[in-house]
Design brief:
The chain is mainly alpha-helical and 279 residues long. The chain is built from 12 helices and 5 strands. The relative contact order is 0.17.
Length: 279
């Protein structure tokens, strides 16, 4: 048993050493140019799925400003006799919408046409699995766009990360077994396991060079927009996608005042009153 463990320690130690050397990346100089992302891409890229409700809100503002949809308010009295706000969205056309915007447009009006915030609220509460799943499909589409643009690592690189983690766990287990038999070669395997885990963690949070440059650019844009006193409508779409508070955004762009009540109601309809979770 001891000789078998010693042999396994040597083989796995050499393999781990080879993997560590092969996967050690030299420091890369970040490119100076950044990708020009659309508002929903930028919001999704720097904030992820947690900001998906705000990305959807920004898209709807674009639809309204572009006259792709119309908006009217028609409140109702619920079964408890209380007045409830309700907004109605009606389709007009799909002019000047790109592929992602058109995908979201079709998704929203697949629930109901005309679409009401009352209906969205009902679906969120009573058919949450299907409701959330529909939006997940749209978010997966955006994630694939990020991969195709070279901003995030593709699935093949993710598989490599899992392989490194598996090897680290195998090293760790064998090292502990070896040390229990007083085979001190296990110490080297234990060290290799720690190094592989650290490498895996580093890779999991890493962007490709183009992605890091673009991330830094839009992260700074989001911070700068918080300090700006006035924003154009195009800038407001980015700001909304970045998660800037609706009331704060209205103060920076008075043209959004007419949508303020609707935006708050719509967001509550799709995520709930006090939710901070993504769709």
């Amino acid at each position: 048993m001891k000789y078998m463990l010693i042999l396994l320690n040597i083989i796995l130690g050499l393999l781990s050493f080879y993997v560590l050397i092969k996967n050690k990346k030299p420091s890369q100089k970040l490119p100076s140019e950044t990708l020009n992302l659309k508002y929903y891409q930028a919001g999704f890229f720097i904030r992820g799925k947690n900001e998906s409700p705000n990305i959807i809100l920004a898209s709807i503002v674009k639809f309204l400003e572009n006259e792709n949809i119309s908006l009217e308010k028609k409140d109702y009295v619920n079964s408890a006799g209380k007045n409830r706000e309700n907004f109605i969205l009606k389709t007009q056309n799909k002019k000047d919408l790109d592929r992602a915007e058109e995908k979201l447009f079709d998704l929203l009006f697949s629930f109901e046409n005309p679409l009401t915030t009352k209906k969205l609220n009902y679906l969120r509460i009573n058919d949450a699995y299907e409701f959330n799943g529909a939006f997940e499909g749209f978010l997966d589409f955006l994630e694939e766009e990020m991969q195709n643009l070279g901003l995030v690592n593709k699935d093949t690189k993710q598989k490599k990360i899992y392989s490194l983690l598996f090897l680290a766990l195998f090293d760790l287990n064998l090292s502990l077994i070896s040390l229990s038999y007083k085979i001190y070669l296990g110490i080297f395997l234990f060290i290799f396991a720690l190094l592989l885990v650290l490498m895996t963690i580093k890779r999991m949070g890493a962007y490709p060079p183009k992605g890091m440059t673009t991330y830094n650019y839009y992260r700074k844009m989001a911070e700068d927009m918080k300090k700006e006193k006035n924003l154009s409508m195009d800038q407001s779409l980015y700001a909304l996608s970045f998660g800037i508070n609706i009331e704060e955004l209205v103060n920076k762009n008075n043209k959004l005042k007419k949508y303020e009540e609707f935006l708050k109601n719509f967001k509550e309809s799709i995520v709930g009153k006090n939710s901070i979770l993504n769709i």
